[in-house]
Amino acid sequence: KKAQIGVTGLAVMGANLARNLARHGHTVALHNRSVEKTDALLAEHGDDGEFIRTETMQELVDSLEKPRRILVMVKAGAPVDAVIDQLVPLLDEDDIIIDGGNSHYPDTIRREAALAEKNIHFVGVGVSGGEEGALNGPSIMPGGSAKSYESLGPLLEDISAKADDGTPCCAWIGTDGAGHFVKMVHNGIEYADMQVIGEAYELLRDVAGQEPGDQANTFAEWNRTELSSYLIEITAEVLKQVDARTGKPLVDVIVDAAGMKGTGTWTVMAALDLGSPVTAIAESVFARALSSTERETRLEAQKTLAAGVRESDTVGDAAFVEDVRRALYCSKLVAYAQGMEMLATASGEHNWDLKLDTIASLWRAGCIIRAELLQDIMAAYKDGAEPRNLLFAPVFRDVIEEYLPSWRRVVVEATERGIPAPVFSSSLAYYDGLRRPRLNAALTQGLRDYFGAHTYGRIDTDGAFHTLWSGDRSEIDS
Length: 478
Ligand code: NDP
Hints:
The chain is α/β, with parallel strands linked by helices. The protein has helices at about 10-25, 35-45, 55-60, 80-85, 105-115, 130-135, 145-160, 180-205, 210-220, 230-240, 265-275, 280-290, 295-305, 320-350, 355-360, 375-380, 395-415, 420-435, 440-450; strands at about 5-10, 30, 50-55, 70, 95-100, 120-130, 140, 465, 475.
């Protein structure tokens, strides 16, 4: 009997995806560079379903039905290229290599093009949901050729998370690197989502005087509002945790230096290339950098830099807590709006024809940013409806109109008390930047023309103009 799919790379992610496939009734061929991992998986979970044990790449390839499907779950980067190089000589036309790791999308574009020349499909798949998701149903974002999805899609949809309405959180995203790109932006949004939660936590603590234990209740309540999401849910869990060694809230004994593995940085780098203003994601990445890379500087700054804050009492009323909730919701909306705009811009750039409603639908379950909000985002983009900006969708425009006074109050409060709220405040600046009838970019253009003769446009006529700044200051049509 041949296997429907092979998995090579059986660390946590590969092993759990293999088990998930087997539990869904597919025969799975197992392979790992060092055979110990293969045997450990078989020993512990061999009864999850039908597995075929293989030791070499040749055995792996021989154990598969055609066209072959091989899921590569090795360490991202050079190991993926190494595995591809070993596989390619053993494969036939129309076979499919699937990269389910966190590969950088330009690598995926490069690999897809190289394998397409050999008529082998290369499918970069974004997989979100961590270890637990891989086993019980992740959100899956496959790129690659549309043809490869005909053969691969049913299998992936089978093991994916299912939204409340039963639809699989897996759909073809677009050609070559589209799947990995969308997964990358998902991670960028995840950074912003976590940062706004962090900002709310700090304000509830330092302004509203809520200790972590009390805040756990606040977040649990918020999870029953339109903020309902996995991240809000687990925030309540983390804040509730008491450290066994000291009896303090665990959050107070955790070092305040946030780690990152790079997908947020990739998102911002790609956004800069596209000219896409994902300020909420960028601020979130930089907030982590300030916390960790700049830790020593912060320790010194605490001793030397003035505070200049408004001293005032705690604002212990329910109204302020609600203000913070509203500010959190608005800032989160901006982060999603910016992420979706970035996807739309990239879609044009790479000819991906990304379907934003489908993408929002895939994030409804299985992944870290799963949230009730995605249902509304999906509706806003439904059937190709394309609000120029997500914030224009009536459902969001109206909520923001109602919540704006709270959002502004919270940013003022944070600023006056010297509490950094980079995403709350930059999201508000982005929002105001969108709606202002005139931006100070006019002055920027004047300055650029002054020092570099870069020219400017006029509001009353077409063309490019230059003022003879060092001459008689007359204007010429350039
Ligand atoms: P690791 O990233 O730790 O990679 C370990 C695996 O890669 C082992 O099977 C190892 O084999 C294999 N490997 C490393 N180098 C080579 C090589 N040169 N040739 C062949 N095999 C090699 O595994 P994870 O399971 O943590 O992650 C797999 C992928 O999934 C990564 O891209 C990771 O970023 C991504 N990931 C995604 C998550 C998500 O939520 N979507 C969460 C975690 C990871 P050996 O046993 O022989 O050393």
